[in-house]
Write a structure and sequence with these properties.
Strand content: 15-25%
Low-confidence stretches: none
Largest sheet: 7 strands, mixed
CATH architecture: Alpha-Beta Complex
CATH topology: Spore Coat Polysaccharide Biosynthesis Protein SpsA, Chain A
CATH superfamily: Spore Coat Polysaccharide Biosynthesis Protein SpsA, Chain A
Radius of gyration: 17 Å
Helix content: 40-55%
Distance between the termini: 28 Å
Structural class: alpha/beta
Oligomer: single chain
Length: 244
């Protein structure tokens, strides 16, 4: 079965999220919105969107962070009977013209995780761009592989049957550390991953919730935990590589 929806974590993106939902619905993709304890103005926008057909709303009482909101959305998508979920940011940075291409790749190989491999334009903040490379190096170390081409791009189609056991079985990071950590833990489980190029644009008037100090600390701690987890899994990782 291949029954996809979109999961959209939202925290105070009331000016952009409507256009994102419109674009996804126009392509026949149902939407699960996750209100990550947004301010009242944004909450009202989400309430209005949730009155539309094929739009559902999950409301978190306390702010969980992007990862916590995504995990809540994936669980709700599964409860609603969907088999796959396209993770999409609410701020409009993802190129929604690529939705059909990503979903078709997922249909062709429904067991695979379809991951965005970003092509940035000049709008990307240089500090964010350079910091990504350090995260990539740690991901390659923690998987003993170059197989994860980009661990930070959140434009992905998750097969829910594969990702929900990881979410339920590990204490994943709930903020910006979620995107790389879930890929590493799926890679440890030998999860098939396919990579597709996608354009990423940072709107000039966009709202970023990346906290330069706090989130970098969380990501550093996450990499340290994964490193020791990798050491425990070295025999299995090497055996799988040899057996392949």
């Amino acid at each position: 079965m291949h029954k996809p929806c979109a999961v959209i974590p939202v925290y105070n993106h009331e000016h952009a999220v409507g256009a994102v939902v419109d674009a996804l619905l126009a392509q026949g993709l149902p939407c699960v919105l996750v209100d990550d304890a947004s301010r009242p103005g944004c909450a009202a926008v989400l309430d209005a969107l949730a009155e539309r057909e094929q739009v559902w709303l999950v409301r978190l009482a306390r702010n969980q962070g992007k990862g916590g909101a995504v995990m809540a959305g994936l669980a709700e998508a599964h409860r609603l009977g969907f088999s796959h979920a396209l993770q999409v940011d609410a701020d409009g940075q993802h190129d929604l013209a690529d939705v059909a291409r990503f979903l078709e790749a997922s249909r062709q190989c429904p067991v695979a995780l379809i991951c965005g491999y970003p092509r940035y334009d000049a709008s990307v903040p240089k500090g964010r761009l350079y910091a990504r490379y350090l995260t990539h190096v740690w991901v390659w170390i923690n998987t003993l592989s170059l197989g994860i081409r980009d661990s930070m791009c959140g434009f992905r189609v998750y097969p829910l049957a594969a990702v929900l056991p990881v979410i339920q079985g590990a204490r994943l990071g709930k903020r910006m550390d979620f995107d790389p950590e879930v890929l590493v833990r799926l890679h440890w489980r030998n999860q098939p991953m396919h990579w597709l190029h996608t354009r990423v644009h940072y709107p000039a008037d966009g709202v970023s919730h990346f906290r330069a100090f706090e989130d970098n600390v969380l990501i550093s701690r996450m990499h340290a935990r994964l490193f020791f987890g990798m050491l425990l899994r070295v025999p299995l990782i090497l055996w799988r590589r040899w057996a392949a």
